[in-house]
């Protein structure tokens, strides 16, 4: 056939093929040396074009291997060639790439005329389901391995006669293998009797055979003796295909508990009579409790439900104390009246609320003492009753007044009145007092609500004021940023500049617009240079920032260093850079901000200062003044040349002589008592003494000394050489300043005579101010002290205390608005007349320490709030000694006993059940030794039943990896253990469902594709026959139309069965039983379905009682009969028999045939969805009919069973209850 004929035939098929979802294409072989080397595409429907991603014009020019060259390597091309060469249909599955996805297609190849027809059905969804089922199977296998219960899957071992004589382990989990003393690998494929010889016909072997042969699951319990103890095993067997699944669990503890419970039940039976006698009292008490609960609910939910708790209280007491009048009075201190909150007259609320009586009427004994006032028989002249109330005249004879106290305050009264004398009983009084306690809470809550409303209004006013202040502060901050003299630049986390202030233009020469968008770069000029270079580079050429700089910011969130800024023109400017991180509310770093101060002038001054220090050191060593340093005992540690020269001693000699021994003996006592003994507290100024030289002569020396940090710094001068002494003194002062600066302290002096305050550079730096102010006074400084600290700060200065030593700490508000904490130490200096002339001291920044202390307090508070409100038990032990430091309140709830004493670390062991105590003690000793442990155990405590506890411990270590705390957490996992038990019970069902899903998907996919493929092929052939003359083509067309009709009927039947299965599984099958005559029902089914068989076969009916009636659903039972009789006709060649009988109030219907029968190995799975016996492959069927029939029979409370022998025949037996009230009948 040439190409035109092929194209014409393809066009004739196109109209039908375009509308079906199956890809259909027609190919012809391409030959080379009489070998098929390729296939050329001739025609393809719309779906085929979509799969090939070709247009219709491209498709006709394309060959198979040009489009899919990998078909050769994968062997797919060979299967197409085999279909062409042999004429046998080829069917296979293969992956098919479409764009960036992989789809799976089911391919059928058949030879047609001079080419091959290829049909491809997309089965991707079923493939994905299959893969998911495989994944779930692996997951299930993992779960099985972790189960604590023993599990084994057995396969029958048959002898030559086909009889079961043993079972083989096919699958086992670790728990089962461990119980048998073997590994899972050693146990697999071994026989039951080999491992467990005593498992005979009356034991495990017999039960396994019964389950496999009948398909009925078995649940059993066994008891056996081990070392004199009775142990109980609970097992379950169920058939899975041709295997049996066994699971078992040791429930000895449960049996023992059941025995105890039975004993307790007997005891409870004995007490039943006593409980019956107290029933009325309990009901009365319950009524009282319910009323109090209603009052409490109304009290708690008042704002949600609007229910008034006073009304609930009065209505409750009216039910229990049916007096005539109830009233609640609230004392109003402002008016002096007792206001009536609520009146209850009879059973109705009275509207006369708000009326009042003088509250003094209720301020009498015994009410003031909290006791009720009771009048059993009211008289006209009863004491304490105001005449104007006219209670007697209004008919009241009984009265109770109960005082209402809350928070130890007398806030109201509860009044009960009735017309009958002696109306109120002791119980009435008790009930009234119970309700009175609730009413007191109600009145107090109303009082608090009013106060809360007032406080809320005040708070809203304060919030509004605070909002205005925040707005003002924001404007002030913007102004500071704009006019600040320091350069302020912010970047994102990558260093890209986001904002800059005007001062940055002056510092770096960039305009703000130029600077924004550039990347800040930090690097060190060389490896030995400690000063980083800061530059700003375009983003596209920016180099990475130094790792050291990034590491400091990452760990400390703060960087403070002297740097060199590289300006726009390359000029390098020394700056002091402070960089800190910017964080959002969650603490995530979102950028950085840097504040740079031009320190060019400071660097120049520093250079001058260093030069000056060098000069001073030179000057000190060559100075004419005498200088020395000693300890508080006068032992000299350093001395200059002038001192040595002045006294003619060498340095070594002077360091060996105590300072006091250098002074003239006549002056030593005065100097020691008045100067040296307190020199660390009182400096010596301008003291004149005679000092002994080495030759025994004396020099008159004027000397000063001051004690700092247990060292005494002294300077001396010859009276005739005052200039040298002043130089030496300046040198000592300079050394003192260096010493304080080395520890981060600043030196201050308050001259009380001139009212001037002097600071060193460190003090100005700490306060964020430029040094050098000459008008600085204490009064000006007090303006920087935080207002909340000002009073205490003044009280601790010389203005508020006469003490000579001054210690103070305060918050300081710096000019930039930031707040720091400073700590001060000072010394009050007096002149010879005892008048205070100056205060000298040091100060240092303790902000970080205070913040750390505040953070620690907040952290401890949060820890306690969390620990005391969680469900888990949480405790902490110290390491040495091992003592309990903390345990949260959850301990009492979980362990059922009171919290232990700090030294009672073993108290909780008393709550551990006896079986678990040994293991817990072992783990507890490991915990004491610093090991982290995890254990699960049961505790009893005061609980009625044992509860499961999961205990985990941790070790907290310091930076040297030394343990500092042992921490433990315990969770109540009782519910989790219960869920594990439920999960274990559901594993068997899950395994069955998993296997069934896989089988349903595979079978349904095959059964639906088969009729569609047959229909498609028949349609293709009909189109080809249409080209032939009608007379010759008509028989063939009718033949294939008949095939299509049959396949449509098969498809419809399959779809109907699938829908029926779906309704059954969804529980939507309607079950409407009525009384039915059985014989007419069966005759009607035979007449409508089996009376006109083509082979003239018929149903042979036999019945014991023609008048037999049964209570059943006629529609459902008709379906069962049709299915069973259809199978009998289908699988046999003789006349099927239908027998109807009754026995023991049961209806028995049997369908008997002498056909091909059912293989014995297929009988256990016969009623599974889509299952078909192995000898029915050539006979049409879906494998759903018997499944539906059994479901319908079971809806009647009956059974459907089968007896069959291959090549002999089959008997299907339906047994139904006849009675309407049979317990077997189950409604749907």
UniProtKB/TrEMBL annotation:
Residues 1003-1220 form the Histidine kinase domain. Residues 251-288, 595-622 form a coiled coil. Its EC number is 2.7.13.3. GO terms for molecular function: phosphorelay sensor kinase activity. InterPro entries: GAF (IPR003018), GAF-like_dom_sf (IPR029016), HATPase_C_sf (IPR036890), HATPase_dom (IPR003594), His_kinase_dom (IPR005467), HisK_dim/P_dom (IPR003661), HisK_dim/P_sf (IPR036097), PAC (IPR001610). This is histidine kinase. Residues 559-611, 806-858, 933-985 form the PAC domain. CDD domains: HisKA, PAS. Residues 480-518, 612-687, 859-931 form the PAS domain. Keywords: Coiled coil, Kinase, Phosphoprotein, Transferase. The lineage of its organism: Bacteria, Pseudomonadati, Bacteroidota, Cytophagia, Cytophagales. It catalyses: ATP + protein L-histidine = ADP + protein N-phospho-L-histidine. It comes from Larkinella knui. PANTHER family: PAC DOMAIN-CONTAINING PROTEIN, PHYTOCHROME-LIKE PROTEIN CPH1.
């Amino acid at each position: 056939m040439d190409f035109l004929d092929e194209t014409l035939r393809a066009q004739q098929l196109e109209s039908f093929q375009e509308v079906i979802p199956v890809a259909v294409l027609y190919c012809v072989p391409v030959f080379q040396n009489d070998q098929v080397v390729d296939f050329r595409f001739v025609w393809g429907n719309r779906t085929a074009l979509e799969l090939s991603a070709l247009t219709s014009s491209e498709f006709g020019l394309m060959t198979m291997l040009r489009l899919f060259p990998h078909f050769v390597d994968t062997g797919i091309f060979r299967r197409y060639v085999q279909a062409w060469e042999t004429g046998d249909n080829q069917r296979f599955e293969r992956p098919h790439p479409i764009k960036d996805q992989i789809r799976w297609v089911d391919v059928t190849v058949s030879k047609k005329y001079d080419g091959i027809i290829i049909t491809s059905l997309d089965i991707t969804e079923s493939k994905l389901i299959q893969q998911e089922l495989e994944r779930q199977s692996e997951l299930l296998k993992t779960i099985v391995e972790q189960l604590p219960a023993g599990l084994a899957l057995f396969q029958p071992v048959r002898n030559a006669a086909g009889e079961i004589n043993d079972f083989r382990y096919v699958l086992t989990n670790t728990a089962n293998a461990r119980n048998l003393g073997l590994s899972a690998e050693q146990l697999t494929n071994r026989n039951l009797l080999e491992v467990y010889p005593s498992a005979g016909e009356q034991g495990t072997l017999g039960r396994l055979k019964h389950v496999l042969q009948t398909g009925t699951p078995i649940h059993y319990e066994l008891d056996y003796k081990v070392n004199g103890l009775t142990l109980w095993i609970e097992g379950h067997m169920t058939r899975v295909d041709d295997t049996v699944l066994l699971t078992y669990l040791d429930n000895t503890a449960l049996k023992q508990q059941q025995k105890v419970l039975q004993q307790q039940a007997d005891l409870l039976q004995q007490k039943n009579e006593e409980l019956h006698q107290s029933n009325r009292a309990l009901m009365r008490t319950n009524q009282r409790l319910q009323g109090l609960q209603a009052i409490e609910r109304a009290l708690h939910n008042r704002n949600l439900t609007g229910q008034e708790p006073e009304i609930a209280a009065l209505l409750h007491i009216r039910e229990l104390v049916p007096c005539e009048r109830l009233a609640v009075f609230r004392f109003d201190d402002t008016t002096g009246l007792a206001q009536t909150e609520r009146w209850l007259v009879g059973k109705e609320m009275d509207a006369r609320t708000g009326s009042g009586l003088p509250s003094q009427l209720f301020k009498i004994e015994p009410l003031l003492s909290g006791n009720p006032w009771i009048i059993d028989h009211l008289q006209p002249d009863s004491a304490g009753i105001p005449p104007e109330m006219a209670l007697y005249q209004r008919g009241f004879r009984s009265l109770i007044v109960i005082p209402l106290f809350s928070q130890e305050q007398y806030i109201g009264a509860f009044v009960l009145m009735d017309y009958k004398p002696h109306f109120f009983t002791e119980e009435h009084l008790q009930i009234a007092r119970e309700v009175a306690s609730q009413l007191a809470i109600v009145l107090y809550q109303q009082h608090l609500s009013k106060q809360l409303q007032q406080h809320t209004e005040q708070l809203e006013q304060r919030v509004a004021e605070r909002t205005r202040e925040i707005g003002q502060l924001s404007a002030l901050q913007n102004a500071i940023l704009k006019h600040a003299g320091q350069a302020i630049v912010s970047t994102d986390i990558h260093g890209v500049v986001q904002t800059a202030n005007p001062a940055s233009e002056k510092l770096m020469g960039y305009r703000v617009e130029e600077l924004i968008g550039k990347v800040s770069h930090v690097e060190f000029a060389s490896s030995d240079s400690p000063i980083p270079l800061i530059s700003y580079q375009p983003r596209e050429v920016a180099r990475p920032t130094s790792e050291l700089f990034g590491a400091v910011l990452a760990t400390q969130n703060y960087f403070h260093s002297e740097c060199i800024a590289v300006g726009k023109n390359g000029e390098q400017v020394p700056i002091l850079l402070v960089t800190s991180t910017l964080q959002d509310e969650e603490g995530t770093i979102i950028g950085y901000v840097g504040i740079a101060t031009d320190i060019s002038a400071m660097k120049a001054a520093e250079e001058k200062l260093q030069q000056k220090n060098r000069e001073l050191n030179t000057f000190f060593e060559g100075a004419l003044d005498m200088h020395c340093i000693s300890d508080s005992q006068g032992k000299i540690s350093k001395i200059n040349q002038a001192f040595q020269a002045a006294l003619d001693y060498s340095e070594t000699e002077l360091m060996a002589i105590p300072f006091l021994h250098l002074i003239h003996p006549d002056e030593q006592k005065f100097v020691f008592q008045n100067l040296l003994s307190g020199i660390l507290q009182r400096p010596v100024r301008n003291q004149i003494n005679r000092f002994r030289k080495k030759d025994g002569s004396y020099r008159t020396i004027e000397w000063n000394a001051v004690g700092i940090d247990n060292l005494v710094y002294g300077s001396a001068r010859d009276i005739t050489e005052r200039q040298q002494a002043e130089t030496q003194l300046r040198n000592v002062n300079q050394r003192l300043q260096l010493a304080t600066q080395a520890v981060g302290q600043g030196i201050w002096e308050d001259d009380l005579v001139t009212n001037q305050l002097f600071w060193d550079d460190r003090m100005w730096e700490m306060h964020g101010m430029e040094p050098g102010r000459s008008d600085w006074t204490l009064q000006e400084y007090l303006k920087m002290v935080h207002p909340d600290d000002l009073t205490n700060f003044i009280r601790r200065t010389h203005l508020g205390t006469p003490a000579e030593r001054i210690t103070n700490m305060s918050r300081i508000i710096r000019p930039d608005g930031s707040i720091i904490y400073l700590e001060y130490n000072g010394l009050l200096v007096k002149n010879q007349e005892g008048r205070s002339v100056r205060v000298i001291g040091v100060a240092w920044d303790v902000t970080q320490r205070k913040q750390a202390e505040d953070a620690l307090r907040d952290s401890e508070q949060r820890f306690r709030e969390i620990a005391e409100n969680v469900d888990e038990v949480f405790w902490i032990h110290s390491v040495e000694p091992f003592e309990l430091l903390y345990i949260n309140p959850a301990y009492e709830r979980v362990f059922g006993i009171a919290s232990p004493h700090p030294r009672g670390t073993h108290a909780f062991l008393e709550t551990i059940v006896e079986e678990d105590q040994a293991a817990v003690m072992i783990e507890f000793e490991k915990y004491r030794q610093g090991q982290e442990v995890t254990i699960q155990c049961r505790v009893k405590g005061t609980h009625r039943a044992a509860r499961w506890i999961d205990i985990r411990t941790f070790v907290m270590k310091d930076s040297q990896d030394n343990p500092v705390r042992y921490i433990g957490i315990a969770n109540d996992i009782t519910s989790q253990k219960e869920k594990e038990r439920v999960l274990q019970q559901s594993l068997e069902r899950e395994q069955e469902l998993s296997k069934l899903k896989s089988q349903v998907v595979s079978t349904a996919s095959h059964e639906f594709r088969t009729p569609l493929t047959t229909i498609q092929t028949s349609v293709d052939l009909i189109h080809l026959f249409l080209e032939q003359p009608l007379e010759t083509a008509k028989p063939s067309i009718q033949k294939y139309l008949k095939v299509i009709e049959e396949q449509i009927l098969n498809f419809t039947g399959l779809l109907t069965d699938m829908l029926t299965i779906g309704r059954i599984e969804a529980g939507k099958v309607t079950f409407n039983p009525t009384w039915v005559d059985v014989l007419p029902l069966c005759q009607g089914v035979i007449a409508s379905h089996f009376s006109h068989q083509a082979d003239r076969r018929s149903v042979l009916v036999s019945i014991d009682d023609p008048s037999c009636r049964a209570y059943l659903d006629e529609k459902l039972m008709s379906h069962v009969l049709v299915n069973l009789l259809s199978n009998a006709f289908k699988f046999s060649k003789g006349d099927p028999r239908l027998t109807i009988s009754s026995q023991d109030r049961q209806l028995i219907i049997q369908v008997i045939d002498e056909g091909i029968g059912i293989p014995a190995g297929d009988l256990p799975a016969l009623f599974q969805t889509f299952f078909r016996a192995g000898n029915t492959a050539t006979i049409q069927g879906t494998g759903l009919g018997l499944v539906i029939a059994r479901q319908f029979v079971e809806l009647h409370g009956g059974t459907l069973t089968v007896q069959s022998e291959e090549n002999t025949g089959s008997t299907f037996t339906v047994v139904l209850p006849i009675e309407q009230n049979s317990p077997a009948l189950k409604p749907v």
